[in-house]
Amino acid sequence: MSMDVLVEARELVKDYGTRRVVDAVSFAIRRGETLGLVGESGSGKSTVARMLLRLIEPTTGEVRYSGCDLLAAGSREMRGMRRRMQIVFQDPYAALNPRMRVREILAEPFAIHNERPAEGLTARLVEMLRTVGMDRSALERFPHEFSGGQRQRINIARALALRPELLVLDEPVSALDVSVGAQVVNLLRELQREFELTYLFISHSMPLVRYLCDRVAVMQRGRLVEVGTCEQVCDEPREEYTRRLIAATPEMPAAS
Length: 256
Known about the structure:
35% of the residues lie in helices and 25% in strands. By secondary structure, it is α/β, with parallel strands linked by helices. Strands 6-7-8-3-9-10 form a six-stranded mixed sheet, with helices on both faces. The protein has a four-stranded antiparallel sheet with strand order 2-1-4-5, with helices on one face. Helix 6 (178-195) links the parallel strand 7 (166-170) and strand 8 (198-203). The longest helix has 18 residues, at 178-195.
């Protein structure tokens, strides 16, 4: 794994009115690694992720992507940067337009970025489905015709459409039952190896983070309270808060 930094957050702060939801958060994600960002609901994890992708603007702080100041990027430059980083949301039901067929959903990134795949659009869409374990028959169907796990696979395929470097995975299996979630997590591991992806994996489950991640950053009430390798944080946590997180979630079963 290359040790060069792909994306870095520096002293990120987010205020909503008089309420501070993220307070001076700093971390780096190395190219090719998976960083887990963990904490209870309301700890600020998703807000940090959205600031990292500039889906929301920080009150203060800095985000650097491949050395570039992301927050200083103009609209044209930002459009190019968005090809390189994508997000998979928590709810596989809400993330897909129910009125669009899977073909349209997967083709949307190419339309937005005015790109036509060299091998032809349909061939690329079929290949995208194949990478997430689905076949071309899915193209003409609507989201409601699929299970939750299949919908999340479609979301992942769409996120990979433009061959990004960074995927932000915002609790991608928390809306799925445990065994289906384990299958999706194993798929994410395979995709990371195949496409040399970098992940920010957001979760409240320490066992899940330990299974998937190289390092983990623990958030409590908008602040980072502990950062280290998964072994360091899970085996010898410094903070009582981290120990409670570890105790609160059962071990993840292996997917068949």
